[in-house]
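Supplementary Methods, section 5.1.

A reviewer requested that the exact input to the structure prediction be made available. We therefore reproduce it here, unchanged from the version used in the analyses.
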Amino acid sequence: MGFLLLLFADATHSELPRITVGPVGGYVEDSVCRDCHASHYDSYQHVGMAQSFKSPVNARRIENFGEVFYHKPSNRYYQMLLEGDDMTFRRFQKDENGNEINTIEIPVDWVLGSGNRTRSYLYHTEHGEVFMLPIGWYTEGQFWAMSPGFESPDHSGVSREVTRECMFCHNAFPEIENDAFGVADRFPAKLPEGTGCQRCHGPGGEHVTQAMTGKGLEDIRGAIVNPRKLTGARRDSVCMQCHLLPAISLVSPVRFGRGEFSYRPGELLSDFLYLLDVEEGNIEEPERFEINHHGYRLMKSDCYNEGGITCIDCHNPHVKPESGAFREKVAGVCMDCHQDITHQTEVAPSECVTCHMPTRRTTDVVHVTMTDHWIARGPFESEKLTAPLEPSNRPITDIRPLKFAGQQQDQDTQTYEAIAAIRAGRSVAVGVQSLLQALSKQEYEHYTPYLDLTRGWLKLGNYAQAEAFARGLVRGDPNLAVAHYILGIAELANGKITQAKLSFRRALAIEPDPEVHFALASLYFDSGSLALAEVELDKALEIRPLMANAYRMKGRISAKLGNATKAADHFKRSLEIEPNDLATYSELVVVLRKNDQPDEAARYLNHQKQIPNP
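The structure derived from this sequence is encoded token-by-token as follows.
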């Protein structure tokens, strides 16, 4: 280190690496860390976290490319193709004669997941929206299957948007302009590739600057976080920022006023999130085991609560664990407290994990098994714990604060519990009433809970209340685009056409959004202003090229203008994106008949009959 300090003492300011700015400011490229920490950096590149997010060209090749997977519930066929470094997602159906219909191909821009257990795939639009594709690769079984949440017949297809909340745990923080709640999720074309050094050590810009300008060792070390020097919940929060998810069905909300990428190592996780736990129906707590339950289950262990064991007692984050050696290391940690334990039968010294941290099948990602970090006495039936499961959607029966990092019941509990329920789409009516009650007792300066309440009214179809609360939001923060959009939707539903048009225009002046352009197009279409409607649809498709309802409306416009050929092209494109839209088939059949294509019309009509009514 001393040699490097002498070397960097001569560095000029112009040679300093670029440091990010904005809400995700203070970071450098993770590769800069290698200049001083080559051994740690190089070793870490083999760890799953470093492989968590990659471009196709940099992702390890582990899949069976070209293999066709058929998903019977949605009657769709899937392929992932590889040509050189280009990865392409392909989906199609088959008509009654076995010929392809509704075929779509989408270039894959990002590979999500290390592939140690599973992988998913994303595409990234020019305007910064990122979407998840519906199939995943499951490494244990070496097969393709639907990614979690896509198992049902009416899944979201190629239209499930990736949010900042999703990106938080799957990658290093990207440099974005705004990470405030309610702001549209937009990501730069260049994203970090993998969860890097600074997610655990904090922003490295100041640390690197101190080193490269010859500052003293104390100043250099003081400008970065060493998690091993943290204690208690602050130390554990570094790991728990990504490995503490009590239930995928309900995510702990970011505290009001905090940016969604604003957590920094060294702070308590409870200062960033309002930590919530849940109970779910139809399952007992020991069996409720999910893919991201490492920290959650560890916190239920006596070894954690009474013995003081921590994540990094067993795990070296910089080194990929090799099974045999790793189990011996873990057994050594166990023996620090349990050296006097006598087993009834002879047990190998490295087998603590096998019996006391068994492998279980996860209930949310049913094609995956993981190590259960709830350290328990046992014995366990291995075959039962890893037996096949079917995807299930369990009801949430209770929400409560999660006791970690000082989180406890307080005056904000009802508010955060209610907004979490509304966001999860679970018991929205109950959540709205609970939030309304909470806000009558506790006022907040930040708009977040009022935006959640307004969205709740909108979900319930109570447009009068939605309009009233949205109007309050735009008065409080005129630059909140989503509030103007919700106000426009409510005004439109309440018959206030002119006001709705103005609200949509105000939203678009703040932030381009395909949903707002589509809402404005719908307004123009209904009033007969077809040319203006098409302008808005084209703007929507420029931002979001795979927007099925926009193509459908373009088809309807072309049909009204007497251009059956163009209408058919638009309807077909809409069905390629969303092949379960019964109404689009009906409209397509009409224009095909008008275009003197009876066989093609019959083909789509017969295919429509295969689709179950929603």
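Residues 237 and 269 are 5 Å apart (CA to CA). These observations are discussed further in the main text.
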